[in-house]
Amino acid sequence: MYGYGLGYTNRRSGKTNAFTKSDCSYYFDGSNNYLDMGKAAQSLLLGSNKQWSIRILFRPLTGSKNCFGLSIWNTTGQQRAVSLNLDSNTGGGNKLFLGFSSSGSSVDGNFTSTGTINDNDWNDVVITYNAGLVNVYLNGVSFAGTSTTIPSTIFSSSANTLIGAVNAGNNVNEASYINMVSIANEIWTVTDAANMWNNGTPRLASEVASDVVNEWYFDTDTFDGTNFTVIDTVGSDNGTSSGMISSDKDCNENPY
Amino acid sequence: MSYPNRIYILAGQSWMKGQSNGVNDIPAPYKDVYQLNSRIWTGSNFVAINSSLNNNQYIYQDNGASMEMFMTDIATSLNNDIYILKLAKGGAGLALDIAEEDWNVGSTEELYDTLVTMISGAKTWMTDRGKSYVFKGIVWWQGEEDSIWETKADDYGTNLGGFYNNLCLEIGYTVPIYQYNVQEPPSGNRDYRATVNDFKASFTAADTENRKLFDADVTSWNPDNIHPTLAEYKRMFDEKVKPLIIADL
């Protein structure tokens, strides 16, 4: 569905923009904060012969650590499953590194991008997984890489789904902003990725691609004095921030 | 593309600090809510304004409440977050005063230096987060103390120019300044306010694009007969300050 155009009104935010956008991002400080999404999307992402797509709009800040977009990857108790390291310090740095585990105890297959991620730029990354076949798109075009054998079964971890960290309690990463995360139960194509990127202006995934099951775009998240409630605007998997201060939800930092 | 983050400095004397326990009189929808689009400096972080988070050194000293509680309206007009540095102290003059803490740029480790430290901290906070920023305005509610004393009033023009010029040098560019003419409260004693206000007028006339001056026109006073009621703070903001700031957006 391509419901875009001048004056289009976002039915969720009620805003009318030239293009629907997500104003707000979270600032991840690289040391102490992340979003804990509970068991969000795990029945879709984990298990045998799964098919899914994940899109993340993010901006890594300058650094030489790792920038994690979404992970179900707890090293304690061997609960590794999937780790989306969007700006990794491996392979010479600034690479996109995806780790998959079928055993829970190790990286049993990985994807490392050939190209690099630009620090301080907004990046629109789409990752598709089709029973062990991985494709990555960056800013609407294919983002090539090298893969080891990626397992067709992803470990059914007991770890929570985290955004902005790999492992609760072990969150020494690169500071970054994430503007939105969406998950679909289909394999998005390069055409889908290009439509979402929209010649340099990202769109909300659910407005341009079918079968989105979860989308967190943060604009309507609420703060209770300690944590934000992170609203799933498509599904029902709300999450909770951890270690955030009230200014870490930042509606001035976005790709638009 | 991210928006330049607008930073406003709210500084002055007790009118800017706010009447003690003024937080109790803040109207809805400003009271006891997290104003997520209006962030104020705590000395180490910007945090969302919330009138129930009282007695921070830089924000709600003595549970005071002033126009910072309403700056969220500016953010709403912009559809962007705004950032605020607030520093105010009752009875603090611009003239150098060896007995009291003052705003004079020649005083060491007093209010001007504290404000400079806050500006430096805010710049670092923004830079560390990869945020572009612009200091968009100085709201200067001050002059009452200097209106009480003839010698202080006589030096007000020099002291105001020195304060503003040094502050702009510290920031790195000319920043709009919004101030009021000192008003005589029911308690009286501002015998030299005409002198102070004349200096404010000539200071403003020198750069009308960046310097704005208004009459507060307060008619409702707290029982101390020195400070406006909270309702008057709100009216001053709505009728005087907000239109000037929005015009400069």
Secondary-structure blueprint:
The complex is a heterodimer of chains A (256) and B (249).
Chain A: E1 8-9, E2 16-17, E3 25-28, E4 34-36, H1 42-45, E5 47-48, E6 51-60, E7 68-74, E8 79-88, E9 95-100, E10 109-113, E11 123-130, E12 133-138, E13 141-142, E14 145-147, E15 153-154, E16 162-163, E17 176-184, H2 190-197, H3 205-208, E18 212-216, E19 222-223, E20 228-230, E21 239-242, E22 249-250
Antiparallel strand pairs in A: 1-2, 3-17, 3-22, 4-16, 4-21, 5-15, 6-11, 6-17, 7-8, 7-16, 8-9, 9-10, 10-14, 11-12, 12-13, 17-18, 19-20, 20-21
Chain B: E1 5-12, H1 14-17, E2 35-41, E3 46-49, H2 72-78, E4 82-88, H3 111-128, E5 133-141, H4 150-154, H5 156-171, E6 177-181, H6 193-205, E7 211-215, H7 230-247
Parallel strand pairs in B: 1-4, 1-5, 2-4, 5-6, 6-7
Antiparallel strand pairs in B: 2-3
Describe it.
The complex is a heterodimer of chains A (256) and B (249). Chain A is mostly beta strands. In chain A, the strands form four sheets. Chain A has a ten-stranded antiparallel beta sheet, with no helix packed on it. In chain A, strands 3, 6, 11, 12, 13, 17, 18 and 22 form an eight-stranded antiparallel beta sheet that branches. Chain A has a two-stranded antiparallel sheet with strand order 1-2. Chain A is globular. The two termini of chain A are 21 Å apart. In chain A, 53% of the residues are buried. Chain B has one domain: Rossmann fold (3-Layer(aba) Sandwich). The longest helix of chain B has 18 residues.
